[in-house]
Amino acid sequence: MIEVAHLTKRYGAKAAVDDISFTVPPGRVTGFLGPNGAGKSTTLRILLGLDRADAGTALIDGKAYRDLRNPLHRVGALLDGAGPVPERRAVDHLTWIAQSNRIPRRRVHEVLDVVGLGGVARQQVRKYSLGMGQRLGLAAALLGDPEILVLDEPVNGLDPDGIRWVRTFLRDHAARGRTVLLSSHLMTEMADTADEVVVIARGRIAAHGPLDEITAGHASLESAFFALTGDRGPGW
Fold first, then answer.
1. What b/e readout covers 56-70, taking b as 16+ CB neighbours within 10 angstroms?
2. What's the pLDDT at 81?
3. What is d(CA 60, CA 210) in angstroms, rounded to the nearest whole number?
4. I need a surface site. Which of 101, 109, 122, 146 has the fewest CB within 10 A?
């Protein structure tokens, strides 16, 4: 269970997130939607211990990320823009993460095979396409076989087959009673993947509930999103 309660973060006079609260239950894929600058990345960074909140909490099974024992065994994360040293081989990148978190080396090859990179594991990351880099990021998130996944734009750069694989994997992960928090700009894909949706706009929660409730009375998730946020700008 992920629990965000009265979370507030300011940068100077601007509130990036302003007293937001929501929960992400196990057994469901929860979509996290919002326009650029709405507060999604700030919320995820606080949840993963990369930023500090000014007020409120963002907890994983009742604890702050920094207080988790063996966090990679509890939470797997992929944040947009995060990546390995380009000159490092994929297998070495994952081996370093595994060793520093007491994860068996065999798990490195297991996750590389799972994400479809087993045949290019010894290539330098700089030779990877954008989609291959995303697959490597997913492999890193899966190393500890975590019950909770926090993913920011996981299908960015993937081809249709890769997108379908991610969708199926996340739904299977949730079906096993595990927790998925998924941030994405791809409305159609989110509509096909998510069970629950949290919509954030201008640092506040605009809506939170089951997908069918959020989309009730609207032609699509996209139209519901625009109605809730009032955002039709160039970021979408």
1. bbbbbeeeebeeeee
2. 56
3. 21
4. 122
pLDDT at 235 over 60: no
pLDDT for residue 234 is more than 60: no
Under 8 Å CB-to-CB from 4, ≥6 apart: which residues?
Answer: 20, 21, 22, 23, 43, 47, 56, 57, 58, 59
Q: Model confidence at 236, in pLDDT bands (50, 70, 90)?
A: very low
- Stretch 171-189: mean pLDDT: 93
- Closest to 194 measured CA to CA, from 43, 40, 61, 24: 24
Structural domains in the chain plus CATH codes: 2-81+148-229 (3.40.50.300)
Reported confidence tier of residue 199, pLDDT bands at 50, 70, 90: very high
Beta strands in the chain (DSSP E): 2-11, 14-24, 28-33, 55-60, 75-78, 148-152, 179-183, 196-201, 204-210
Farthest-apart Cα atoms in the chain, separation: 51
- The three-state secondary structure class of 206 is strand
Candidates 80, 45, 34; CA nearest to 204 is 34
What is the C-alpha separation between 128 and 213, in angstroms, rounded? 40
